[in-house]
Amino acid sequence: MNVELGYLKKNYHAASGDPEPRFVSRLTKNTYAMVLAGGRGSRLHELTNWRAKPAVPFGGKFRIIDFVLSNCVNSGIRRIGVATQYKSHSLIQHIQRGWSFLNGQFGEYLDLLPAQQRISEDQWYQGTADAVFQNLDIIRASKCEFIVILAGDHIYKMDYGKLLAFHVEKKADMTVACLEVPIAEAFAFGVMGIDENSRVVEFVEKPANPPSIPDNPEKSLASMGIYVFNTQFLIEQLIRDADSPNSSHDFGKDLIPHMVEKYRVFAQSFEQSCVGMGDDNTPYWRDVGTIDSYWEASMEMTKVIPDLNMYDQEWPIWTYQEQLPPAKFVFDEEERRGYAVDSLVSGGCIVSGSTVKRSLLFSDVRVNSYSSIEDSVLLPNVDVGRHVVLKRVIVDKNCKIPDGMEVGVNIEEDRKRFHVSENGITLITPEMLGQIVHSIR
19-299 has which CATH code? Predict the structure, then answer.
């Protein structure tokens, strides 16, 4: 590691850009990633009635968890654990089908770690730190020098190799990846106060008066819930926390405040490890944890040049998808023309004599004649009848929209049948339509 560290100090901040891949891979190959994917995502309302938030479909063909797992694989981290808890069957099934390509013969694997009451027969995962603590034997068995803790429910592209290199360069015990956010919005995050060397000197959870960045008084550093630890240090801290009767066993509430006071904790701005910036040179990161934020992030994908580049072959997003025929658009009559504009249309879809504008159609969606879909997200296996109007809606998987239905035209009428968000986005599920669905979500 001394030779590598010397190489890092010489080359990591060189004007030519990143260190050579061989160097980064030495760090990432010696890293175990623990993805925390057990959250319900209750602010997504009925969209998470039958699935965990990381299993929610996103981007036309992916699921939310595909982004963090793709970041791991693309960064060279190929020893991964995924801790699940809430309604995890569809999430587990997706991972088994889509992420089985890691080869155990080369020390690559993905561990599925559902809550199993491994520590106590009356205790599931009690917090983010406890979810890791209950899997300490698996972390030890990995024999990795570094542990990366990741949330499984955010949309972003990040090179964890750069974060690890920063961690080693700073000789840190722990490193936190952070977003730069306007100081007026920082009250919703855990906020880092840092010195001129990026060392964390203060951590406050959802502060009324958040600390600012030393050279930018208008912004604060907000934790992304992405942490790098030296493995032995993490094990010691988790055991100490587990023995504390007053702890809620959460990284943000308990472990980080304790460590900041006594150990070398550093913060790295997301700009330094983000893969692909937006047009305004702002790193792309989205928490699609509400109906409105999920819809807004989906609509961003329909732009001519979206901030998130899913066509990047150097940093691809991996997923599981059935082998489906190409999307099909049929009929070319004056009142019955099948076409889509500024939209993403996945395999297996048929747009039959209808118009689709600024929308996302997931796999196997059928839109029948004389219908109009605008500013909407249709999840897999949705069947839209004839003469239907859908505007600013999210339609859950397996819904069958009956002929002549109009949603998004009269909000007050929609509230009587469906869930309507604060910003007027309507969520439609099979249960709301009185339909019984037996398939896995």
Answer: 3.90.550.10
